[in-house]
Amino acid sequence: MHTRRIGDVQVSAIGLGAMPMSIEGRPDEARSLATLHAALDAGVTLIDTADAYHRDAGEAGHNETLIAKALASHALGGDVLVATKGGHLRPGDGSWTLDGSPRHLKAACEQSLSRLGVEAIGLYQFHRPDPRVPYAESVGALRELLDEGKIRMAGISNASPAQIRQANEILGGRLVSVQNQFSPAFRSSEPELRLCDELGIAFLPWSPFGGISRAGELGAVHASFARIAEAHGVSAHQVCLAWMLAKSSVVVPIPGASRPETIRDSAAAADLALTAEEIAELDAA
Ligand SMILES: NC(=O)c1ccc[n+]([C@@H]2O[C@H](COP(=O)([O-])OP(=O)(O)OC[C@H]3O[C@@H](n4cnc5c(N)ncnc54)[C@H](OP(=O)(O)O)[C@@H]3O)[C@@H](O)[C@H]2O)c1
Fold first, then answer.
1. Closest C-alpha residue for ligand 1 atom 44
2. What residue owns the CA closest to ligand 1's atom 1?
3. 17-46 confidence digits (pLDDT tens)
4. What is the pLDDT of residue 5?
5. Residue 209 alpha carbon, nearest atom of ligand 1
6. CA 29 vs CA 13, 35, 208, 258: distances in Å
7. Ligand 1 atom 37: the closest Cα is on which residue?
8. pLDDT tens across 69-117, in order?
9. What pLDDT was estimated at residue 1?
10. Is 179 in the pocket of ligand 1 (CB under 6 A)?
C-alpha cells in the first residue's frame, strides 16, 4: 500500500477508524478482531481510536483494549501506529461529554498507556476543545506529555485554523496531525485541510463517508461518486477516499469499519488513481 507521513512515521495512506467496533451497534469481539486483522493483512498501519470509544458507563477504553488484543495476536501488529485521543467522556446514555482539563488529560493518557500496553503512545490527540477550559491549557497538557515522553507525537481534533496555529505554537512546532470531519456531504473543513497542507501537518478526515449511519447511502446520495465508481469498477467509497487522497499529500483518511470486507475495500482506495477531470467533477459535485 502507498504510504504517507505523520510526523516522522510512515503510515498506510488509508487508516482504519475503529470506533464502529465499540459504540452503539457494535459487533461481537470475534468479528471486531477479524476486522482489525483484515486491516493489517491489507497493509493498514494506522488505527484511529479514543478512550471514549465505548458504549456503556464504566467501560472506557473498550476500543483501545480491543486494538491491543488484535495487535498482540498478529505478526504485523508491531508495525502499526495507534492514534488515540483524550478529552471526551461517555456517561453511558449515548451522549458525549467533555473534559479538556490538563488534570483529566494526563490521567486519561496514563490509562490509555496501560490499556495499549506501551511505554509511549504513538500519536495522542486532544479530542475536542472544551469551552470551559482555555485551549492553551489543554494543549499545554499535550506539550507536557510530549516532554515527559508519555506520548511520541501530538495531534488535535475538531480544531479551527486559529486553533491549529495556536496548538502548533504551544507545541513548539511539534503538532503532527489534525483530525476534522470531512466527507462529500461535509466539506467545511477545507480551510483546515489547506492550512495543514501549507504547514506540512497530516490531515485525518473523520467520518469520510458521512458517518456510520449514513455510509451505506454514499453512492445513492452522491451521484458523481457512484458514476465514477462504476466507470472504474470500484465502490463509491473507494472513489471518495481516492478523491480525498488527491487533495493533498498530507491527507490520511480513517474510514470506519466493523467488517473485514469493508476495510479491505477501503484499503484498496490507496491504489485508485482518478483523472484530473474526475477530481474536478467530484470537487464541484
Ligand atoms: N475526532 C472525532 O471527533 C471523530 C468523530 C467521529 C469519528 N471519528 C473517527 O473517524 C472514523 C471514521 O468515522 P465513522 O466511523 O464515524 O464513519 P465513516 O467512516 O464515515 O463510516 C463508517 C461506516 O462505513 C462503512 N464502510 C466502511 N468502508 C466501507 C466500504 N468500503 N464500503 C461500504 N461501506 C463501508 C462501515 O460499515 P461496517 O460497519 O459495516 O464495516 C462503517 O460502519 C471513526 O471510526 C473514528 O475513528 C473521529
1. 17
2. 157
3. 999 999 999 999 999 999 999 999 999 999
4. 98
5. 20
6. 26, 10, 24, 10
7. 257
8. 999 999 999 999 999 999 999 999 999 999 999 999 999 999 999 999 9
9. 87
10. yes
3-state secondary structure string, the chain?
CCEEEECCEEEECCCEECHHHCCCCCCCHHHHHHHHHHHHHCCCCEEECCCCCCCCCCCCCHHHHHHHHHHHCCCCHHHCEEEEEECEECCCCCCCEECCCHHHHHHHHHHHHHHHCCCCEEEEEECCCCCCCCHHHHHHHHHHHHHCCCEEEEEEECCCHHHHHHHHHHCCCCEEEEEEECECCECCCHHHHHHHHHHCCEEEEECCCCCCCCHHHHHHHCHHHHHHHHHHCCCHHHHHHHHHHHHCCCECCCCECCCHHHHHHHHHHHHCCCCHHHHHHHHHC
Residue with cell 497530516: 202
Q: Which residue's C-alpha cell is 474510514?
A: 255
- Please report the pLDDT score of residue 105 as a whole number: 98
| Dist. CA 83–CA 282, nearest whole Å | 29
Identify the active-site residue in 4, 11, 38, 53.
Answer: 53
Angular region, 209: left φ>0, alpha ψ -120 to 50, beta rest: alpha
The residue written with cell numbers 515527559 in the block is 148
| Contact 163 CB / ligand 1 (< 6 Å) | no
53 belongs to the catalytic site:
yes
